[in-house]
Design goal:
The protein is an alpha/beta fold. The protein is about 40% helix and about 15% strand. The protein has two domains: about 130 residues, Alpha-Beta Complex (Aspartate Aminotransferase, domain 1), CATH 3.90.1150.10; about 240 residues, Aspartate Aminotransferase, domain 2, CATH 3.40.640.10. The chain has a seven-stranded mixed beta sheet with strand order 2-8-7-6-5-3-4, sandwiched between helices. It starts with a strand and ends with a helix.
């Protein structure tokens, strides 16, 4: 993007050239309906199955355990509602956390209206749940635990392996929203005892409008959308073949290079934090200092209006955010920052910077120089 410095990769990423090339034939040449029995339809069906294998390989699942959806939010809905509806005769208690994405929180609110009981776990000042609290709130009616792998606003990585162990020990299913994590960290659903996992292609250099859901073989879940029998009768609707092919290619490319990518992003993250703390007084890093996504930095600037800060940065060609892009229209303080107990003078002054493969240290120098100038002008004392 000419003249633009983009630091909002948690909101979305660009589509890689190789991903786009893989998708193009399925718009104009290989355009058959994958449910059709003639050759052009069968080729599309084969392309979907190849993408399914790529997704499964990355998270150590079986291809038949992967279901393609329209986005991460749909995957969350299908997983949580689908499992809850299937097990409602066994129990009605679901455990989640106060800092989940709204795709999870609002799904749980809907289920509350339908007679389910939801426990929202507290988090500490770093955004981590308390494993002892999790263990203590489990009861005979508990059927599902849904805790995100990594937080979209502050980047904190939850103790997923330990949560999986607790769920397995208590014979409870475990779902994790991994929309921010896939493409940024390695996940093994077998060793982590994950029963269900959500992802979205546009977070790892794939197209928007396509996601995937892993559900372990044998885990009961009910479809929530009526229609045809696509995706093993769990997700009705003609498949977005081009999008699915793009997701498969994007996740393959991401994990071919995951160690080098993470090393680069971690170095950029640490450089940015050090420069901000060196040059700008009265700042607070939100989220865990080390146990966080490699490219995520959420910093609050005391007594600065976050919205004003974003607008001033935009005038300098800098793209950033104050939190989740899905919640950008809200006038309420971030539920994540509220949950970690941020003081009022820091609560509405956060800036989320999330790095990607095109970012450089020179970009960070430009960002910090402008931040220093803007914060000094906008700080209300």
């Amino acid at each position: 993007m000419n003249g633009i410095r983009y630091f909002d990769h948690a909101a979305t990423t660009s589509v890689k050239e190789d991903v786009l090339k893989a998708m193009i034939p399925y718009f104009c040449i290989e355009y058959g309906n994958p449910s059709s029995i003639y050759s052009i339809g069968r080729r599309n069906k084969k392309a979907i199955e190849e993408a399914r294998k790529k997704v499964a390989k990355v998270i150590n699942a079986k291809p038949q355990e992967i279901y393609f959806t329209g986005c991460g939010s749909e995957s969350d809905n299908l997983a949580i509602k689908g499992i809850a509806y299937s097990l409602k005769d066994k129990g009605n208690h679901i455990i989640t956390s106060k800092i989940e994405h709204h795709a999870v929180l609002n799904t749980c609110k809907t289920l509350e209206k339908e007679g389910f009981y939801i426990t929202y776990l507290n988090v500490d000042e770093n955004g981590l749940i308390d494993l002892e609290e999790l263990q203590n709130v489990i009861n005979e009616k508990t059927i599902l635990i849904s805790i995100m792998t990594a937080n979209n606003e502050i980047g904190t990585i939850e103790p997923i392996r330990e949560i999986g162990q607790i769920a397995k020990k208590n014979d409870i299913y475990f779902h994790t929203d991994s929309v921010q994590a896939i493409g940024n960290m390695k996940i093994d659903v077998q060793s982590m005892n994950i029963d269900s996992l959500s992802m979205s292609a546009h977070k790892f250099y794939g197209p928007k409008g396509v996601g995937a859901l892993y559900v372990r073989e044998g885990v009961p879940f009910t479809k929530i959308q009526d229609g045809g029998h696509q995706e093993k009768d769990k997700r009705a609707g003609t498949e977005n073949v081009a999008g699915i092919v793009g997701l498969g290619k994007a996740i393959e490319l991401a994990y071919n290079n995951i160690d080098e990518y993470n090393k680069k992003l971690t170095e950029l993250r640490e450089y940015y934090i050090s420069q901000v703390e060196k040059k700008i007084p009265d700042v607070k890093l939100n989220g865990h200092r080390n146990n966080r996504l490699p490219g995520n930095v959420n910093i609050s600037f005391k007594n600065v209006d976050g919205g004003e800060l974003l607008l001033k940065l935009d005038e300098k060609g800098i793209c950033a955010s104050t939190g989740s892009a899905c919640n950008s229209g809200s006038t309420q303080p971030s539920h994540v920052l509220t949950a970690i107990g941020l003081k009022p003078e820091y609560l509405e002054s956060s800036l989320r910077i999330t790095f990607g493969e095109e970012n450089t240290k020179e970009d960070i120098d430009y960002l910090v120089d402008n931040l220093e100038e803007i914060v000094n002008k906008c700080r209300h004392v």
